[in-house]
Amino acid sequence: MYRYLALIWNPEDERSGLAAAALQERLNASPTSWSPSWEATGILVLHAGRAPHGPSGQIGTSDTWPLARGAGVVLGRIFTRNIESPQSAARVTFDEGESSQVLASGGRRLLERYWGRYVAFVRNGATGEIWVLRDPSGGFPCLLTHYEGVAIVCSDIEDCHGLGLFSFAVNWSYIAGFVAHAGLQIRETALDGVSEVQPGERVRFFRGSMQRSMEWNPIEIARSEPLEIADEAVAALRATTLGCVHTWAACHKGILHNLSGGLDSSIVLSCLVSAPSRPELVCLNYFGTGPHEDERRYARAMAERVGAKLVEEQLDPRAVRLQKVLSLRRSPRPWFYVYEVEHGDFEDELAARHGVDGLFSGAGGDGLFFQARADLAVTDHFFAHGFGAGLMRTAIDAARVSRKSIWPLLWQAVRMRVLQPEWDPIAARSPIARTIVKSELIEAAKRNTALAHPWLIPADTRGVSPGILWHILSISTPPAFYSSFPRNSCLERTMPLLSQPLIELCLRIPTYVLIRSGRDRAVARRAFESDLPTEIVRRRAKGRTDQHVRNILDANLHFVRELLLDGLLVRQGFLNRPALELYLTRDRSPADFQYTEILQEHLCTEAWLRRWATTSCSTAS
């Protein structure tokens, strides 16, 4: 897989210059074959590996995009877009005029005229200022650490660790926040001294100083030019989704698409089959034997409608060996590894068998198209229009989606608008009952404003309607790019719905339009109802894997007990050991949420900590 590593130093500082030279020697001597992408005074950018490519001449057939006159380089996937028609894209060429505008705008031109999955490095030759910019989707990792006055920006922390110069210690305050509410996305990581450049963030380096600024603001986008007319929103969403999926499809000769049978994955497939590049398509559906775990009839209906090849794979919890989590690649923070443990090798083998190089899914669609929290749409409508026309209709729509009475929804809207209590997206994201996590840890996390996503800093969210904040929160965690385990696969994972033009469009569609007619993701349903089987368009229930998760735990019970009950999380006082032990038996209900919490969150976090144990033996203070 494609990786990069950049060294940035102050050329006027002898100490940092010597450190940069020493780092270059280490990189040259490393087993990785690093190649230069761009070099200028005070900066060296290297890359290794190559991403899969489509046929020559198609969009996205390169992953290194130089700016003219040596002004910088963009790494990853980047596409052009027309502001009036964001679905149009073409191969990128940064000529002298365009490079000058990128430089003069401080990088904002990249955010406004381009999109993709990229990280940009630019140097102003007149001032010596260097800046790094990550695209708003956050699809390409961008990590930041320092060594002897040299800033190191990279996509993979394994490459820094491999230099043998770093002894990364666990950031226990971050781990405490992560355990309290998984999916934590802030600048800090779970390693001391390693931070993450956030999606849409620019980091400026000048004479040894560093400044960070968010150059892409989703709140501003959501509040600008809202698409209140449903028909216009439907047309725009259809065109933009088609354009984004078609563009990503052109990056691959063949695609393995995870077709769950749900609305979002079906929409992506409907776009893939009409892609002008005509990639080879293979659809994959997993099914189980528990309640709501077999969605084959929906996947079959969709595959038959478009004539796509469908592979059906039965879930077998007895074949899942959770011990694999102990062989993780090093990463800057814990992730959710169970899916990869169960399916990673199979998907690699299936892709190799069919000769495909891309792995697609409809992931991210629930948050993007607004599947949850219909109650907040009523509050948003009241924020925007008060008691005006449409409030009662929105309350009825929200009541149908959430299956609640309209009166509590209306009262919540009035209360939040009149009293304007500070809406806390961190507290809202935390599940109602987390009996396994120490209650004091959860309460401390709710009060800790440092755990707020940089897009959702409390001081910047005053007066913003809560549905907008929830919508932004729902798309605030970037997808994983690299595999969590050592693998030889060249499969490039893409979630095409999490593309900047589509994110920006959906943010501009008010939440009360997104649930119009009493259906979640109503605009997306209407936009693609002519392309999907009726039973998928009208489907309300989602597939669940509660029984399957419990069966995986039962099949690995000894290992899970051994890893967690006397593990680091328990020893640090983050988990309630008696409550945890109650669930780690064969006597509990198979439907409890806590089983998913144990496997997807605490087991994965414990495994991450064990992976770094040989590097860091630090303990919480």
List the helices and strands and how they pair.
Layout: E1 3-8, H1 14-29, E2 35-40, E3 43-48, E4 64-66, E5 72-80, H2 96-104, H3 108-113, E6 114-123, E7 130-134, E8 143-147, E9 150-154, H4 157-161, H5 172-180, E10 195-196, E11 201-206, E12 209-214, H6 218-223, H7 230-249, E13 254-258, H8 263-272, E14 280-287, H9 296-306, E15 309-314, H10 338-354, E16 358-360, H11 365-369, H12 375-385, H13 391-402, H14 406-418, H15 425-429, H16 439-447, H17 466-474, E17 492-494, H18 500-508, H19 511-514, H20 522-527, H21 534-537, H22 546-555, H23 557-564, H24 568-571, H25 577-583, H26 593-612
Parallel strand pairs: 13-14, 13-16, 14-15, 16-17
Antiparallel strand pairs: 1-3, 1-9, 2-3, 4-5, 5-6, 6-7, 7-11, 8-9, 8-10, 11-12
